[in-house]
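hey so i finaly got around to running the thing on Peptidase S74 domain-containing protein from Ignavibacterium album. pasting the sequence first so u can double check i didnt mess up the copy paste, my clipboard has been acting weird all day
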Amino acid sequence: MKPKIFSIIICVLLFICEIFSQGIPQTINFQGVLKDASGNIVSNGDYNVTFKIYNAETGGTELWTETKLVNVVDGIFSTQLGSVTPISLPFEAAYWLGIAVGGGSELTPRVPFSSVPYSRMSLSVPDNSLTASKIHSGQIVKSLNGLKDNINLVAGSNATITPSGNDLTISAAGGGGGTVTQVNTGAGLTGGPITTTGTISIANDGITNAMLQNNSVTSAKITDGTIVEADLGNGSVTSTKILDATITSAKFLNDAVTTAKILNGTILLEDIGANGATANQVIKRNASNTAWITAPDETGAGLAWNLTGNAGTTPGTNFIGTTDAQAFDIRTNNILRTRITTKGQIETYYTGLSVFVGQGAGANDDLTNNENVFVGFNSGSLNTTGDYNTATGYQSLYSNTTGNDNTAIGYNSLFSNTTGENNTATGVYSLKHTTGSYNTANRYATLYFNTTGSHNTANGMYSLYYITTENNNTAVGYSAGDYLTFSEGTFVGSYAYPSADGYTNCMGLGYNARPTGSSRVHIGNSAITWIGGQVNWSTYSDGRYKKNVREDVRGLDFIMKLRPVTYNVAVNEISAFLKEDQKRDKDGNITFETNETDRKSREEKEAIRYTGFIAQEVEQAATELGFEFSGVEKPKDENNLYSLRYAEFVVPLVKAIQEQQKIIEELIRRIEALERK
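ok and heres what it spat out for the 3d tokens, dont ask me to read them lol
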């Protein structure tokens, strides 16, 4: 059903009387009853209503509009027109109000405004409209002695009042002269008859502070030596009464100014002259306690330490401390902070069982018994609740907040660690960027780029330098495990690291050792000419742990396909493939350089004539026979080389011998059969 306005009531807020200072309200109170098309009161709730003001009952021009939610209770609603869009109409003509509910068409008829809104015109009053009869008695100020009654002007003696239009002239009339013949004794004055030679004297203490105008007493008013103590009332002379630089010592008799004559706080330090005093002297009472005198400072600036420092000190003679076998305490805010014991121990107090030495060291520690030791500029500066940490060096363990059990020694060591724990970093920049845990780094820039990796151990300058998020690596030696990233790797020897990124469980032992894949152990470099020991290498071969055992080893047919050869090894080319000459200098820069010892070893090795097989040919022979021969190690990627396990050739050789033996035995049997014929 379409709602309609059944009843409309319009009222206007009372205007404030002080319209000239506060302005007339720009809203109109409006109240109505909202019913549906059947004449029933609508349900309680909020309704969207649009109000418009026109200059005609129908048609006309829309002069103002606003839309708002109105709350309807039992069909009745109230609102203020102009609370959303201010009404600026002058209300000097007839206006009609149009109303629409919920986006519907405007209700008819429009509502004409009654006279109340037009009271806004009270802002202006026509000329000559206010007469005496219009003003209520007592509403206009008409008296100088209150706000009521009439004002009567009465001329006193020797005065006349002359009105002229809007002007009122008050004049003094002429009076006769007279002679003062007597002054009675009063406050500050001694009375007596006045004659042609008589004087009026001022009693002692007669002039008080209140009797003098500011700056009224000048030097010209005072005869030298005429001011005595009796002439001054206690506290009567203040700085405002005396013109600057007016009174000099000549104006006073000796002892004229006493303590009682000087207002407290009047004499400042700069008002006191030296009067013969010299440096490092003080004012003290004489032995008879009758006067102040100057004397040497026996316990002051000459022997004490000034807050701004001392000059002319003698080491061993001048010091800060005690001379009575007692500890020396240093306090802040009257709380003991540092104590130097009689044994020379430096103790700190109220630091949460922690020690902080250096500007900014432990600056944010919450001092809740964290038991940290931070030594150095900004060492452990951001630590809050982390405990059992030790950091020594410029900004060591700087970013740590809640990490525990860390040790950082060296410039910027463990700088970025925040929550990592149980890390040990010894050396400049060691573990600088890590937030991981359980890492150990010793020497310059070890584990430098590690961020979240854990359980890594690096010992040697630049060792494990590029490890970031990888875990469980161990590197010992200059630049060991450098350049590349890997996990579960072990590298022992300078420049020992994998030949490519991403390997796991690899090991390089020796100078320039370069593992070429995961789960591989590389011993030595390409220049090595001998690897050995007293006994042979052993391989696990326990039958309890062998599965899928088959007797499908190829023998003579495989051996007969092999091509034994002699050859020389291109050692320098293998070295280049393995990047053995890639080094890091002392400044951390990557360079390529050949060690002279390596160069000679490679040349010697290239001259050696070796016997063996070509790995690719062995692989082909096995493939042609469908034989899975484990003696060939195939490259897993472009970073690997073919290799042979020569010990694996024993198995097909044994098989070949067994096959040969069967042939021999068959031939023997045949020979014996022929011989018996």
